[in-house]
Design brief:
Elements: H1 3-13, H2 44-51, H3 54-57, H4 67-80, E1 107-121, H5 149-165, H6 193-203, E2 210-211, H7 218-239, H8 249-258, E3 263-264, H9 271-304, E4 325-328, E5 351-354, E6 360-363, E7 369-377, E8 381-382, H10 388-402, E9 404-405, E10 415-422, H11 428-445, H12 464-467, H13 469-475, H14 491-503, H15 511-522, H16 526-533, E11 543-546, E12 563-570, H17 575-594, H18 597-609, H19 614-618, H20 622-629
Parallel strand pairs: 2-3
Antiparallel strand pairs: 1-7, 1-8, 1-9, 1-10, 4-7, 5-6, 10-12, 11-12
Length: 667
C-alpha cells in the first residue's frame, strides 16, 4: 500500500472531539490527536476531507456559533504543523483539457441548404418557359413584388406544406429577423396567395338560400337569415376542402353585397331592409372568419410545439431547431447569372417588349422567371443515428420533386452550411487541435468543391489563413487586430510553445503557417481564439466557430450554438454529396478530439512526409474519398470538384432532376 493510500484509509477512520468556548478559539487544535501517519504522506486530498468534518467533532452544547471559525483554524493548524499540501502535479496541457461533463457526448449536426427556385413567370405575357416540367409555378405571384413579405411567405409556406405532406416534421415559423412583416386580418404568417386565389375562385360559385317566413317579423327573419346563410357559407368551405382562414376580407365583403339575393320572399324587399340584412350577414360572416382564424392560429401554435423525433434536444437550445423549417436568404441572388452560365440558348428563350420609355427591352434567362431565395434548415440531429441520412434524403427528394430548383452553378452564390457540435462541449485543447488541422488542410479542402467556392475568391466562405483577425494581427503588427494577439514573451506563452511542440512537428510546417499555428496555441481561452479566427463583423469564414468559454465551452444558448460551421460547399439538394462532405467535416472534428498527443504529432508528420494521405490520417471513409476524387476535374482528377455540365447549365433543362441523388442527368 502506498503512503497516499494509507493516509486515505487511516484518516477516514480518525475522529476528534473537543469542547470549546470563545476563550478556546485561540488554539483549539491542541486537544486533537492524530494516528501515527507520516507527515510527508499527509497531502491535501486527505486533510481537506477531514477539516470538512470538523463540525461533527464539536460538542453542540458548547458555542455552536464558533464552528466555522474552528474549522478554519483546524485547516490553518495543519499548515503550521508542517502538513501542507504537496505541490500540484504539473498539468501537461496548462489547463486546456479539462474533463467534460459526465453523460452522452453525441456528435450533433445541423444543415442549412441555400437554394434558388423558379416560382412564377416574370411577366404575364411570358408563357411557361418549361411547360413540360410540371412542377410548381404560381399564377398568384406574377403581379407581386418578388421582395414583398406576401411573396416570400407564399413560397415559404408552400415549402413547409410539401415537407409535411412527405411525412417530415416542419413548421411555419415566424422568421421575424429575415422577413420584415406585420400580420394583418387578411394575411398572416400562415397564409399563401396561392391558397387565397383558390378560395376566391371557388367562392364565386357559392349560392345561399333562405326562405322568408311571412309569419315572423323583420327582426326575426334577418337574424334567422344571417345564421342560416353563414352556416351554409361555412359548409361550402368544408364540402370543397377550403380552409376558412384562407378566405380574405375582400371575398367576405363581395359575398355580403349579394347575400340579399339569396333571400326568397313573396314581395319585394324594401331597400332599407335589404341594406340591413346585407350588413348583418356581412358582420356575421366576419365574425365566423375571425373564429376560424383564431382556430388556425391555435393549430399553428400546436404545430410550433412539435418536435422532430430525430431531434437532439440540448438544454438551452433555440427552440426553432427542433423541427425542419424554411426561411429567406437574401444573399442568394440571381444577378450574377447570365449567358455565360448557360452557353447557347434554345430558340424562343429571350422575350422582347417595349419598356415605359418605348425602348425595346430583352428579357432573357434566368429573368423570365421570378425566383425565391430560400434556406431550408434541419433540426439538431445525431450524426451517428441510422435515420439521419434517410431524413436528409427524404427532404431533398420532396423539394426537388415539387419545385423548379436551379441546378448548381457558379453564378448563384448559394451554399451548404454544416454545423458540427459536441453534446458534452469542447475543450480549448480540442479547439486548438482542430484549428491547427484546418489551417493545414484549408487549401486542400477547397478542391473538394466547385472552383468558385475557393476561399480566395468567395466572400461567403473566406479563407481563415488569409482573412482572419489572427492573420491580420500577425502580419500587421500595428493593426487593430494585433492588440488581441497573445504576448509571445511570457511564461504562459513559453509553456504553450512547449505543449505545441509535443503535438506538432513544427519544423515540417511551411514557414507561412508556423507563426499562425504558433499564435493559435498561445491563446488561453476559447473565446479569444474564436475571435482571432473571425474574418469580419459578420464572420463569413469558410469555417465559422460558434463557441464561447474559457478552458471548456459554455453551455448552449439561443445565441450560442456551440458548433463549428463548415461553409465551404456550394448549394445543392444532392443528399449523397452533402452526406459525403459531412463525413469529411465529422472526421476533422473527431480526429482532433480523440487523437492522443503522439497520434496527432505523427499524423501531421505523415501528411507532410507523404507517408499517408490526409484522409487516411483523419479517418475519412475510403468510399468518401473515392467519391470526391471521381468528380474532380482534370485527367488525373486533381482539380476542383466539377459537375457533368462543367458549369454550363442547359437552359432547356435548368432545374435539378427529381429525386435525392445527383442533381444532373448523368451523361
Amino acid at each position: 500500500m502506498s503512503g497516499l493510500d494509507m493516509n486515505i484509509d487511516e484518516l477516514d477512520e480518525w475522529q476528534g472531539y473537543v469542547q470549546v468556548s470563545s476563550d478556546d478559539l485561540v488554539d483549539p487544535m491542541d486537544d486533537m490527536e492524530w494516528t501515527e501517519v507520516p507527515k510527508e504522506d499527509l497531502v491535501a486530498p486527505n486533510y481537506e476531507a477531514q477539516w470538512e468534518k470538523v463540525p461533527e467533532w464539536v460538542d453542540p452544547i458548547h458555542e455552536p456559533i464558533f464552528i466555522p471559525t474552528l474549522a478554519k483554524g483546524f485547516k490553518s493548524r495543519i499548515g503550521r504543523a508542517g502538513l501542507a499540501a504537496s505541490p500540484p502535479k504539473e498539468d501537461p496541457y496548462n489547463g486546456d483539457n479539462p474533463p467534460l461533463p459526465p453523460g452522452q457526448n453525441r456528435t450533433t449536426v445541423g444543415v442549412e441548404f441555400e437554394f434558388s427556385a423558379a416560382v412564377a413567370r416574370a411577366e404575364d405575357f411570358i408563357a411557361d418557359p418549361h411547360p413540360q416540367d410540371g412542377r410548381y409555378l404560381s399564377e398568384a405571384l406574377i403581379d407581386q413584388n418578388d421582395d414583398s413579405a406576401r411573396y416570400m411567405l407564399t413560397v415559404r409556406n408552400r415549402v413547409i406544406d410539401v415537407l409535411r405532406e412527405n411525412g417530415i416534421t416542419a413548421v411555419k415559423t415566424e422568421e421575424k429577423s429575415t422577413i420584415p412583416f406585420k400580420p394583418t386580418r387578411d394575411f398572416g404568417w400562415l397564409n399563401s396567395l396561392d391558397d387565397m386565389e383558390e378560395n376566391e375562385k371557388e367562392l364565386e360559385k357559392w349560392v345561399g338560400s333562405y326562405n322568408w317566413d311571412p309569419s315572423q317579423g323583420h327582426g326575426v327573419n334577418i337574424t334567422a337569415a344571417c345564421n342560416q346563410l353563414a352556416q351554409q357559407f361555412v359548409d361550402f368551405h368544408i364540402q370543397n376542402n377550403l380552409e376558412f382562414h384562407k378566405t380574405r376580407n375582400a371575398s367576405i365583403d363581395a359575398v355580403s353585397k349579394k347575400v340579399h339575393t339569396f333571400i326568397h320572399r313573396d314581395h319585394v324587399s324594401k331597400p332599407r331592409a335589404a341594406t340591413l340584412m346585407a350588413a348583418a350577414v356581412q358582420s356575421l360572416f366576419k365574425l365566423s372568419a375571425d373564429e376560424a382564424l383564431n382556430q388556425a392560429a391555435e393549430d399553428q401554435k400546436q404545430a410550433n410545439e412539435e418536435i422532430d423525433p430525430l431531434c437532439v434536444q440540448l438544454p438551452g437550445m433555440d427552440l426553432k431547431y427542433r423541427t425542419w423549417a424554411c426561411t429567406i436568404d437574401y444573399s442568394v441572388v440571381m444577378d450574377g447569372v447570365g449567358h455565360v452560365h448557360y452557353g447557347k440558348l434554345p430558340p424562343g428563350s429571350i422575350y422582347d417588349r417595349k419598356d415605359e420609355d418605348g425602348e425595346w427591352a430583352h428579357i432573357s434567362p434566368p429573368f423570365v422567371y421570378k425566383w425565391f431565395p430560400g434556406e431550408l434548415r434541419t433540426p439538431i440531429l445525431d450524426y451517428n443515428h441510422s435515420e439521419t441520412y434517410p431524413a436528409i434524403q427524404k427532404a431533398c427528394a420532396a423539394l426537388r420533386d415539387a419545385f423548379r430548383i436551379h441546378k448548381p452553378t457558379s453564378g448563384i452564390p448559394s451554399g451548404i452550411h454544416i454545423h458540427i457540435g459536441q453534446e458534452a462541449g469542447w475543450t480549448l485543447l480540442h479547439f486548438k487541435k482542430f484549428t491547427t488541422l484546418w489551417l493545414i488542410l484549408e487549401r486542400c479542402l477547397q478542391y473538394l468543391h466547385r472552383w468558385d467556392r475557393s476561399p480566395d475568391d468567395n466572400n461567403w466562405c473566406a479563407s481563415v489563413r488569409g482573412t482572419s483577425n489572427l492573420n491580420r494581427g500577425l502580419t500587421n503588427p500595428g493593426s487593430r487586430e494585433s492588440v488581441h494577439m497573445p504576448d509571445p514573451n511570457t511564461e504562459d506563452a513559453a509553456r504553450y510553445d512547449a505543449i505545441m511542440n509535443k503535438h506538432i512537428p513544427v519544423e515540417q510546417l511551411p514557414k507561412d503557417l508556423r507563426s499562425m499555428i504558433g499564435g493559435v496555441w498561445r491563446f488561453n481561452t476559447i473565446a479569444d481564439l474564436r475571435e482571432a479566427l473571425t474574418s469580419s463583423i459578420y464572420d463569413t469564414s469558410a469555417v465559422r466557430c460558434r463557441l464561447e468559454g474559457e478552458k471548456s465551452s459554455n453551455e448552449v444558448e439561443p445565441w450560442n450554438t456551440n458548433t463549428i460551421e463548415f461553409r465551404m460547399m456550394q448549394g445543392t439538394f444532392d443528399a449523397e454529396h452533402i452526406w459525403n462532405w459531412m463525413a469529411v467535416c465529422n472526421s476533422l472534428v473527431i480526429f482532433t478530439r480523440d487523437s492522443t498527443q503522439e497520434e496527432f504529432y505523427n499524423g501531421l508528420g505523415d501528411m507532410y512526409s507523404g507517408k499517408r494521405y490526409p484522409w487516411q490520417v483523419v479517418g475519412v471513409p475510403r468510399e468518401v474519398g473515392l467519391w470526391f476524387n471521381s468528380r474532380r476535374e482534370g485527367p488525373d482528377h486533381t482539380g476542383f470538384f466539377q459537375y457533368v455540365d462543367k458549369d454550363k447549365v442547359d437552359w432547356a433543362d435548368p432545374f435539378m432532376v427529381r429525386g435525392h441523388g445527383d442533381t444532373h442527368v448523368l451523361l
